[in-house]
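Submission sheet (multi-component)
Chains listed below:
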Amino acid sequence: MNELDTIYKAHLALKEKKISSFELTSEHLKVAKENKNNSFVSVLEDAALEESKIKDEEISKTGAKSFLHGIPYNLKDLFITKNIRTTAGSKILYNYIPPYDGATSLNLKKSGAVLVGKVGCDEFGMGSSNENTIFGPVQHPLNKDFLPGGSSGGSAVSVLEGASLFSIGTDTGGSVRLPANFCGLVGFKPTYGRVSRFGQIAYGSSLDQAAPFAKTPLDIAMIMDHLSTNDELDSTQAPIGNMNSAKKILENKENSLNMTVGYDPSMIDACREDVKENLQASIKDLKSKGVKFKEITLPHLKYSIAVYYVIATSEASSNLARFDGIHYGLSVRESADLEETYKASRSIGFGDEVKRRVLLGTFCLSSGYADEYYKTACKVRRLIYNDFQNAFKECDYIYSPVCATTAFEKNKISTPLEMYMNDLYTIPVNLAGLPSIALPYGKSSMNQMPTGFQLIANSFKDEELLLDSHKIFEVLK
Amino acid sequence: MSFEINKELVNHIAALARLNINETEILEYENNFKSIVKYIDQLKEIDVKDVEAFTNPLVENIHFYEENISKTRKERDDVVHKSLEVKDVIRNAPDSKNNEFKLQAVIENS
Amino acid sequence: MMDLEPVIGIEIHVQLDTNTKAWCNCELKVNGFENHYVCEVCSAQPGTLPVVNKQAINYAVMLGLATNCNINKTSFYDRKNYFYPDLPKGYQITQFKTPICEDGVVEILKADASSTKKIRLERIQLEEDTGKSTHHGDYSLINLNRAGTPLVEIVTKPDFSNAKEVTNFLKKVHAILVYLGVSKGNLQDGNMRCDVNLSLKEAGSTVLGTRTEVKNLNSYRSVEKAIEHEMKRQAEILNSGKKVLQQTLLFDVETNSNKVLRTKTDADDYRYFPEPDLMPLLVSDNQIHKIKENLPELPDVKMKRFVSEFSIPLYDAEVLCSDKDLANYFEKSCNLAGKNYKKISNWIMSELLKYVNEAKANINKIKLTPSHLVDLVALVESGEISGKIAKEIFVKVYDTGKLASDIVKEEGLKQNSNTDELEALVEKLINENPKEAEELKSGRDRMMGFFVGQVMKSTGGKANPKLTTELVKKLLSL
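Outcome: structure written.
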């Protein structure tokens, strides 16, 4: 079992009839059901086993129709699944059973993958620690005193603990790359507009993208080839159709790392000592394998957190207005006054961090302040985007830390602002809408927790980024 | 700063957002707000006079793929598709009556 | 008392007559079974996104072109945030900063119909309708069939001077909408809804007063009554030295008066921002060109053509062109007749419209077709039947669909123009009524009516009145 720890290996084993989807699914379900780290919100045991049997039949009849055929996976509980409870980690959706299927769920159904469950996350994707949730924090499988990072903490942990071969999270400001980095996994945020957001409960609409977790860039490619399916229901998805990156990676014969990577040394210097050591080691390592590094500057990136917290919360304040206790979700009706129903339902239904962000966003958009905050932030966002575009004139990819620290210990972060700072390196990528992959590299000399880095590419260079990440991943192994 | 973050402002914002906040929360949010807004205020040091607002990355990035495909945007043909079954429309409704969402009396205000 | 004059501008919401909703493929069937025309998108289930309806854009461009607007080749959608139970998203998708059409002009007839006046349009924006709530004592019910219906909002400049101009404008917009086929455009049915913004200023002054907004105007009559009432209400306030408050008022049909709904406060903070779920709305030159080419003849053009081609007065043309089908009926009749255009217009405006409106009939489906009308008018104009008989026959034609000429033959209603026969009758009358004959001779012209009337009576209305008059004159040597 343990040797089948990637999609690709499991796929080959299924193809060669060394294992059945039923067996593979059962093994993963066992871990999911045990739920040692509180990663799962719902485990779909009966449905998954039933599905796996159907997949076995299909595979025996016509062979595997895709790399994901028969592969057990899970979804962050922010993805809408028809007739399967979808909570967004929130009390307000605690009993919500969607009447429709989102694009992510449908695309993976079509791929033939087997859904074993829905995993925990920070409420509505708002958080970096996976502590802001009605279901309680998700624990780090490598050390109980640590947090796996958020908001897609359940996704990262489920893959690391062996409850699924892959998981789909969402990345609005780093919510996939951060937990991937904290858990030693590969996390990939696609270009904004590369995947459909239909059926992904919205947080920051101009930032959100569905983003996969897996153990290798090749596995990520196999997932992305399905997630990138064109969806007529999302106007903000580019209508360019499926990626075909897995095949390109498998057929690739050119293994030289002939690429120029830009980096800003001050970003590395700002990291904690243990993280810095490993980042510098990885650069040295990559240079020795032929990667050319070039110093660049990204002068406006320091404003990213400020810009992000204005834009993301502004959009969130509007996106979360639909949770009003009238059409679905928690409704507190103790008063004859409708206004009180709104207020009570939302105040009891939303957690503190969600309320904080909704209030901040409402403030940033309110008359008298919108010019100062929302509009200014949108303008600075362009300056950040321009920084990246200028940098890409000189390099193919940009190398950056994912986080200045490793996974953090429980109860160590005291103020919201301190928590927001964790996303300093991931947020600029979402603001500019770029693709970025978090790759693991080494363990901290301080606490033995995983470390890594991210590679950022220009818009719609998703396939190129995956192919080169695969090469890098292989040589660094 | 041209304004002060105080209890009144927090209360006003909470009312707009339809959130109830009690006295202790007001104080907490007031303090959160002060530090966050102070942090955000660093944006004011940048000269953005001639910068155009950036609202959606796809709008900026269309040129990366537009030349390669004929259709660059999604608009629907005016053709009817089946709606949801009515039971599914109201399946999550906290209260309903005769297939409609039910709530306490609303004072008409169009 | 101050000399006050009103400044009036209006906003009209028009439901577009598309097959499907603005952001999803649900059928537009507002009056269907409750919540049967609703999907995950228009019920705002979490995770759903809007996709624009092409036809709604085409319709907005058509309307923009028909009202002489500039079409913005790039416009944007914005979110207007407010909580309301019939707005399940908690925001309305609208166009705030840059609408699809701007700076239009619509020409209307002035209140006295003497001449026309230009009303400027500030903007036409695309947006969506809400669901519908009904109120049942201590509870309310929400039906989302209407939620997400595509709307355009037309905003005028404050160019109206009185209530009549406003209703003339509404009728003109209605006609344009129907000509274009983009909306049913009926105030009564709610597919056109009008809000009036009104303030009073001192005559001659450029300083504007505080304005109020009147809602719930679902007939032309309501619009006129509401404006009249609001002008009076504000004048009373101002004349007593008080100030008009910025308020939203609701017109009450029962009392013909406006009731204060709410006073505007800073709670009306809609927190507009660009809709991140939609791309900018692009309209290409090619698209505009194509739409322009396929625009039907519009009411104003048709009106002017009718005036010049058929030599009818502007007022007639305005009435006839206010309804596309009516205009077609008139034009078809004229083309069949090749003459008597003003007479045809008279018959349509006085008789035909009376019966059609009474029966709420569809003019395309009535038995009295343009050829029937032409036949009837020809009989009158050639003197074969009298006007009085013609009106009686008109009803029969309208009811039965028989030709007037056939009815005349069948019932022997042909006008009597037999000089000998009529002369004998007149002579007899003069002999029997010497007193009246004397009076007429001595200059009491009114007595002519007596003689003609008597002849008519004894001929059952068939006597040719013109000929009869001549005969009376001849026999009395007048």
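Remark: Strands of chain B lie at 75-76, 96-97, 100-104.
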